[in-house]
């Protein structure tokens, strides 16, 4: 289980520290898909950086299976908005990169690469270089590389934000299928409320100034989801509820700002 306990983060600024997060408590059971939304400045990406171990909290801690997170590790895979792929490596060698750092037999590395290439629809492109790929294909490479190490938790930082609508929806279907096939725990931050409701089993709304959990909502939609789910009354009602919450806390944040 992934646990965030009284998590807080301050950044030094002239005139005094700025609180990005304060008192964040969140538990994500094994195998669950949780999406975090909030207005700009609510600390979404900061939260993910703390879970990834790329930054240290000012207060509280992140725990994975009861063990405090003190830095990056293979038990957490991370995918950013701009899929960071190595331009000099083929698709196949990009996916294999993390595995080269693990004490695995060559046969096991090759098996994993082949499986995750197939799972993400990249087998036919295994010898291609990133410059030959579309934006969506590069994100598939980044996702396959993160998953090939078979982390306990996959962390997604607005991974589809730079894609066009059609490609974005294709990737949403892909990540749900991969999640169901692998059973990996997923924690995703996104500014897209519709995406959060479509993908997540829970949607966590962050308030701003400082970032904190304002709502933690279960998504009561079918486990098997096609894009047509987005037209269902229950989906539309859930999306509206989350949008209203994000808008309300963003407005409160603006009202607190000096004129």
UniProtKB/TrEMBL annotation:
What keywords tag this UniProt record?
Answer: ATP-binding, Nucleotide-binding, Transport
GO MF, one example: ATP hydrolysis activity
Tell me the Pfam families matching this sequence: ABC_tran
Q: Does the keyword Transport apply?
A: yes
- Occurrences of domain ABC transporter (ranges): 2-233
Q: What is this protein called?
A: ABC transporter ATP-binding protein
Protein source organism? Phytohabitans suffuscus
């Amino acid at each position: 289980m992934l646990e965030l306990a009284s998590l807080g983060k301050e950044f030094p600024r002239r005139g005094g520290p700025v609180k990005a997060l304060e008192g964040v408590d969140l538990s994500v059971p094994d195998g669950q898909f949780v999406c975090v939304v909030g207005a700009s400045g609510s600390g979404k990406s900061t939260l993910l950086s703390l879970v990834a171990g790329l930054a240290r909290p000012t207060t509280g801690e992140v725990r994975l299976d009861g063990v405090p997170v003190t830095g990056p590790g293979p038990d957490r895979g991370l995918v950013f908005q701009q899929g960071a792929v190595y331009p000099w490596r083929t698709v196949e060698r990009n996916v294999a990169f993390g595995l080269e750092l693990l004490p695995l037999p060559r046969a096991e590395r090759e098996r994993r690469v082949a499986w995750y290439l197939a799972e993400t629809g990249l087998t036919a492109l295994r010898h291609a270089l990133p410059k030959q790929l579309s934006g969506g294909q590069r994100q598939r490479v980044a996702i396959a590389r993160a998953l090939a190490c078979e982390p306990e938790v996959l962390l997604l930082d607005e991974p589809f934000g730079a894609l066009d609508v059609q490609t974005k929806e294709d990737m949403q279907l892909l990540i749900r299928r991969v999640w169901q096939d692998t059973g990996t725990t997923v924690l995703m931050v996104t500014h897209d409320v519709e995406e959060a409701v479509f993908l997540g089993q829970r949607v966590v709304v962050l308030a701003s100034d400082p970032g904190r959990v304002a709502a933690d909502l279960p998504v009561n939609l079918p486990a098997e989801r096609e894009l047509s789910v987005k037209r269902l009354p229950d989906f539309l009602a859930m999306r509206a509820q989350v949008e209203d919450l994000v808008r309300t806390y963003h407005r409160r944040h603006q009202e607190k700002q000096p004129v």
